[in-house]
Amino acid sequence: MRRLPSLTALRTFECAARHGHFGRAAAELCVTDSAVSHQIRQLEEQLGCALFVREGRQVRLTSEAGRLLQHLQQAFELIGKACDELRDPASQAVLRLAVTAELAQKWLVARLADFSSRYPHITLHLHEQPIDAGAPAADIDIAITYGTSPMDASTHFVRPLPLLQFFPVCSPGLFNLGGLKRPRDLVRQCLLHDDQDGKTWTAWLATHADDAQPGRQLYFPHAALALEAAALGQGVAMGDNLTCQADLVSGRLVRPFGASVAAMGQYALVCERLRLERGAVADFIEWFTTQISEP
Q: Which long-range contacts (CB under 8 A, 24 or more apart) does 28-31 make?
């Protein structure tokens, strides 16, 4: 069996690292400053590396300590939840889900009624997941991420969503004006961006419109706003086969051209493997899997 350092020493380290100060850690733990110093020295000896650089009354984490702190906080969070579930079994049905704004607004929210009807005992808390944020935060059970960085499969369960294809979309009214017969006609339209660097539109124009340079452009912080502006006739947005699905079916948006480009990143459901044993987590993943396999 793996030998672990003293749990008291690990808890003391986490507190001191969080405060950046031994005295404040001592006050929180209701011990003396010297007791904190002793626990830290003991842990450094057991691990064989320095954890803090002393700078007067303040302390600064070493790079090794920074990595340890991240894992410890996640572990303490899981321990706390396990204890909460023993005290209150109903707490096991609380699920914290982080998802990007555009996917939540344009894809997930419409499906939540189905989830609630199937799992009425699960209370869902939605949080916003920034684009390309990587691994979920310590207090998040499941995240639906978007990015290009690979996740460590030894610590995280990852279920990718279908690969995205990007293509122009606009309102039926704008399309019916007749000004979008070929890709180069986009130079006379306002292009609606969902990224601040315009990479998606640049890639599409380079592939299908001979690098045509648009005249007017409008930038939004995420795709849901750009797609809404397109549906209101304010220009042409870059849609995809996931977030545009409902609007294309309903006719709020149309594709003036069939051409598309592949996304550089990919959506994926990500969860720490330690959380997979929770009933609410397993239920959501099972439900989610059926949703992404449906047209």
A: none
List, in order, residues 6 or more apart from 142 with CB less than 8 Å away. Answer: 95, 96, 97, 98, 136, 269, 270, 271, 275, 281, 284, 285
Tens of pLDDT along the chain (295 residues) come to 567 788 888 899 888 888 888 888 888 888 998 898 899 889 888 888 888 888 776 788 888 888 888 888 888 877 776 776 666 655 558 899 999 888 999 999 999 999 999 998 899 999 988 776 667 788 899 999 887 666 677 788 888 888 889 999 999 999 998 888 899 888 889 999 988 788 889 899 988 988 777 788 999 988 899 999 999 999 999 999 888 988 999 999 999 998 999 988 888 899 988 888 888 999 999 999 988 876 5
Q: Which residues pair with 236 in a beta bridge?
A: 191
Token match 């293509």: residue?
A: 167
Q: How many CB atoms are located within 10 Å of the residue 12 CB?
A: 25
Q: Are 15 and 25 in contact (CB under 8 A)?
A: yes
Determine the residue type at 143. Answer: A
Contact 140/253 with Cβ under 8 angstroms? no
User: Max alpha carbon distance in the chain (Å)?
Assistant: 78
